[in-house]
Amino acid sequence: MRADARKNRDHLLAVAGTAITEQGVDVSLRDIARRADVGLATLLRHFPTREALLDALLRTSFDELTAKAGELKTSSSPEDALVSWLRDCVAWTTEYRGVTVLMAAAIEDTESALHASCVTLRAAGARLLTRAQAAGMARSDIDGADLFALVAMLAWLGDQPALAPRADRLFDVVASAILTSAGSSHAKGERRPQTRG
């Protein structure tokens, strides 16, 4: 990709990120193009569909969360790694209003532009969960799909103005429910995800 084309693409992604943070994932593509001071045709030339735009925008964050899971696996205890990663995922998904709905749909839709990134992210969390389970620190009756669903659920809470004040406390409740008694003390007292409200 030519340098000027990459610069234009990066500018569109930056504008789209701001627009989605403010208005949610259903923000008009025409509005994003207007904010970026380009025509809709220019936006669509770079990103032919809304999902293609979201995939490009979110992939960096997906990759960072996946890499973070790998780092935590080697640098933290099993229970600390699992809770820390869960907090980071919830905090990130709360930033982009409505993204949890897209992620939940994309994980089941192999044709979705977001499918591969969501599958990779779910697998990263599953590895941390399996490690905690092997150490006897997490309950054995949940799997990576359950963990992915819990991220979506907790992020959804933070995305609801009326419920956002409860999101931090309910995160602790859920984290304590995931961990066994041996690891449950680690569910509290850590950095909490930022929520709107």
Features:
disordered C terminus; 70% helix; 197 residues; elongated; mainly alpha
Written account of the structure:
- This protein is mainly alpha-helical and about 200 residues long.
- Helices cover about 70% and strands about 0% of the residues.
- It is built from 9 helices and no strands.
- The chain has helices at about 5-25, 30-35, 40-45, 50-75, 80-95, 100-105, 115-135, 145-160, 165-180.
- Helix 7 packs across helix 8 (about 145-160) and helix 8 (about 145-160) packs antiparallel against helix 9.
- The radius of gyration is 18 Å and the shape is elongated.
- The relative contact order is 0.12.
Summarize the structure in short.
Helix content is 70%, strand content 0%. It is mostly helical and 197 residues long. Helix 4 packs antiparallel against helix 5, helix 5 packs across helix 8 and helix 6 runs antiparallel to helix 8.
